[in-house]
Specification:
Layout (H helix, E strand, L loop, with lengths): L25 H22 L11 E2 L11 E3 L7 H16 L5 E2 L17 H11 L23 H16 L1 H14 L4 E2 L18 E3 L3 E3 L9 E6 L5 E3 L5 E2 L2 E6 L7 E4 L2 E5 L15 E6 L6 E7 L13 E8 L3 E8 L9 E8 L6 E6 L2 E10 L4 E10 L4 E6 L1
Parallel strand pairs: 1-2, 2-3, 13-17
Antiparallel strand pairs: 4-5, 5-6, 6-11, 7-10, 8-9, 8-11, 12-13, 14-15, 15-16, 16-21, 17-20, 18-19, 18-21, 19-20
Helix pairs in contact: 3-4
Length: 407
């Protein structure tokens, strides 16, 4: 937790006017204490690892301005209640705007039976799991007196739903990693209010029930008990595409079906999002896995996106040992891969396994050009997901190449 705690005190802490040895009131240094404890732990882990090949992970409940430099933050002892799920969204959005880019809330609520509340049922836990899967820090955490809440404890039907949501989280790990690279480079939050990218749209100004992951994914979880739909606002002037079904929706207000196990998530028209589709036991096992690129063209047939890759641990990336790629889809026909940064010290082994183009029917022919050599690829239309699927380009994801749709 890291902050000074007095559990039987009036505010579960020391009195605010208690003085330190230096004569400073507790109200002035309460959060600073938590920050310095997190910082000291992170610095200690770095000093005991002189080869600097491991990045410390230090999670804290207490923080102060600048805490993002030393670790992740969670929002504290929430309760197993629907209104605490609702409240977690603006809390995390606000933290992101304050520079705390790696934060999350306890999925399902921390205080169940042990805090005087009931434990979450399958519906509440599933809805919270759906929302948490699209927040920067995603974990379950519960009071020691609470009932067990591993996904399989809610029954086979609930476990199957939760498994699909967890798969979506893992598929997007590389996208999240790219967004975190952008956060480190620019300070932009990973989980963003809609108005960050659509400030002229007044409907985004007080939207506290949906958010953007990076710029390209819009998320609107269901946070009301018994609800099976959501009222979603899609900003901007271009269409958005359902990530599961590929349905194209114009900007504006929409009532979207969202039965239990389904979270409304949309990809921005004009974007390219990387995914890794292989099932693994942990993200650490995905380092060499191939990629799928999902292209969502805008009305002019244009889309672009980026992919950041490094060793996944250590600090060699600070010396330039990383790859940064840009994927550009233009004219509704050609996807090109180009390098924004490359290094001889890091060569990604990953390859492109599949290309998906939302809302576009298969052309007469698809041609891949790599290192001056052209070859034809197989393409099929997937009715269930509303996209053309181009299989087995099998080129290095970090190489220069083009894939052309011959209409």
């Amino acid at each position: 937790m890291n902050e000074p705690s007095v559990f039987n005190g009036p505010e579960v802490s020391m009195q605010k006017d208690a003085l330190s040895l230096a004569g400073v009131e507790h109200r002035e240094w309460h959060n600073l204490y938590g920050m310095y404890m997190q910082r000291a732990t992170a610095d200690g882990l770095l000093r005991r690892n002189p080869q600097q090949d491991k990045r410390p992970f230090v999670l804290s409940r207490s923080f102060y301005a600048g805490s993002q430099r030393w670790g992740a933050i969670w929002t504290g002892d929430n309760a197993c209640k629907w209104d605490h799920l609702v409240a977690s969204i603006p809390m995390l959005l606000t933290l992101g705007l304050c520079g705390i880019t790696f934060s999350g809330a306890d999925v399902g609520g921390f205080l169940g039976k042990g805090g005087g509340y009931g434990d979450p049922d399958a519906e509440l836990f599933t809805r919270w799991f759906e929302a948490g899967a699209y927040t920067p820090f995603f974990r379950g955490h519960a009071h020691h007196d609470s009932a067990r809440r591993e996904p399989w404890t809610f029954g086979e039907e609930a476990a199957a739903r939760l498994r699909e949501v967890a798969k979506e989280r893992y598929q997007l790990i590389s996208y999240w990693y790219t967004v975190f690279h952008q956060a480190e480079a620019t300070g932009a939050p990973t989980m963003r209010p809609l108005w960050v990218h659509y400030p002229a749209d007044s409907a985004t100004w007080d939207a506290a029930d949906q958010w953007l992951v990076g710029r390209d994914l819009l998320v609107h979880p269901v946070t009301a008990q018994g609800a099976s739909s959501a009222e979603v606002h899609l900003p901007g002037t271009e269409a958005w595409f359902g990530v599961r079904d590929g349905v194209r929706l114009p900007p504006g207000k929409h009532s979207v079906s969202a039965p239990l196990g389904t979270i409304p998530v949309f990809q921005r028209g004009g974007s390219v999002v990387p995914r890794q589709m292989r099932l693994r036991r942990a993200a650490s096992l995905m380092g060499k896995d191939p990629f799928t690129l999902v292209v969502a063209p805008d009305s002019a047939g244009f889309a672009e996106g980026e992919l950041y890759l490094d060793a996944g641990d250590g600090y060699e990336y600070k010396a330039g040992a990383y790859a940064l790629r840009r994927f550009t889809f233009s004219g509704g026909t050609t996807l090109a891969s180009s390098g924004l940064h490359a290094s001889d010290a890091f060569a990604p082994p990953n390859r492109l396994e599949r290309l998906e183009i939302l809302g576009v029917r298969p052309p007469a022919k698809v041609v891949l050009t790599h290192m001056g050599v052209a070859r034809e690829l197989e393409a099929n239309w997937c009715e269930a997901t509303g996209r053309t699927v181009v299989r087995k380009p099998d080129v290095p994801i970090a190489a220069d190449w083009t894939i052309s749709l011959i209409l």
